[in-house]
Amino acid sequence: MDDSPRPLRFATRAVGAGRPPAAPDAPLNPPVVLASTYGSFGDLEYGRYANPTWTAFEAALGDLEGGACVSFASGMAAIGAVLELVPPGGLVVAPRHAYTGTVARLRELESRGVLRVAWVDVTDTAAVVAAAEGAALVWLESPTNPALELADIPAVVRGAHSAGALVAVDSTFATPMLQRPLEHGADLVVHSVTKYLAGHSDLLMGAVVARDAALVERVTAARALGGAIPSAFEAYLALRGLRTLPVRLERAQATAQHLLARLGGHASVVEARYPGFGAIVSIVLPDAEAADALVRGVRVWRAATSLGGVESTLERRRRWPGEAPTIPEGLVRLSVGLEDPEDLWDDLAQALPR
Ligand code: PLP
Q1: Is 74 in the pocket of ligand 1 (CB under 6 A)?
Q2: Is the full-model pTM beyond 0.90?
């Protein structure tokens, strides 16, 4: 009989990974280590290279994604570190609908001749794979923010790898609970930890997760040299948030699906977009005025950018000048939180234009 222990399931690992070893009087949680420097001749040496509180967070997220995690000061810092893997003038295939910061960063690097970009529709797998010919990196965001499009990750990985390109996936909207790109062969996963992983709208952090040791080493070196390190306190809070990811996301997802059914049937909602999982719903109202009226009329929901917190937030995305012109003016992105679903619905119903 095989009496080797069964592999632990996701929720158990979310709660248990990255804790200090069990021992009498040992704290259950990692300490917040505030140190710019450490005694010489060990593994840590200096606070821009290593911190035990980051290491605890990285152990947990790495375990959940199935790779080794390198944490950063923000999601944008993590994205920047991955883009540094592209050789000078190299080609990056990137989604035309993606987080505005990612698009802006790629455009800025392109304008300085650091890299070249081929913009694609991530739902058009054949086009993504064709664009990967001669590319150094295929950047996917799936689901995309705020269009909520999905990429066929395994098919893109097959095509990109046979063209010799790396594949990175911004999996912020999905989290490792709903999508684990490394299991589909992706080389790098990127997160804005700021969102669901930390989950309480009280910090910014980012992460890159990879399986290949050489990639992990290069991303770690980019952090040490770029200096975009998380603070120990934020790493502590992010790990505390990660412990409850399964219950938060399960509840928020159920509420999102409940609201989706009602929103889809509302007379003033032109379109309700949902990728089939997760807790973000994008609704399209007839125009910017109708969308602004909704955002200004809610009382339980909070009008705020960002997403993935315990509180429900919404915003009209085209209020940002950097948002793609192909995103409808009347699109409102809803980040569904943990309030009572009926209160969330009542609030939307009273604020939606009639
Ligand atoms: N990726 C996605 C999909 C995002 O939505 C965001 C932020 O909104 C980022 C990356 C950037 O993360 P941060 O704000 O933590 O730098």
Answers
A1: yes
A2: yes
- Domain with 286, as residue range(s), is 245-351
The verdict on 190 and 74 lying in the same domain is yes
Helices then strands (H, E): number in the chain?
Answer: 12, 12
Nearest residue (by CA) to ligand 1, atom 8, is 306
Instruction: Tell whether 68 and 189 lie within a shared domain.
Output: yes
Mutating to test ligand 1, I would choose from 76, 202, 280 the residue with most ligand atoms within 8 A of its C-beta, which is 76
What's the pLDDT tens digit per position in 142-189?
A: 999 999 999 999 999 999 999 999 999 999 999 999 999 999 999 999
Residue nearest to atom 5 of ligand 1 (CA): 99
Q: Catalytic: which of 13, 19, 48, 107?
A: 48
C-beta of residue 134 within 8 angstroms of C-beta of residue 154: no
Catalytic residue flag (residue 170): yes
The widest CA-to-CA distance across the chain, in whole angstroms, is: 69
* Alpha-carbon distances of 183 from 43, 210, 211, rounded to whole Å: 30, 11, 10
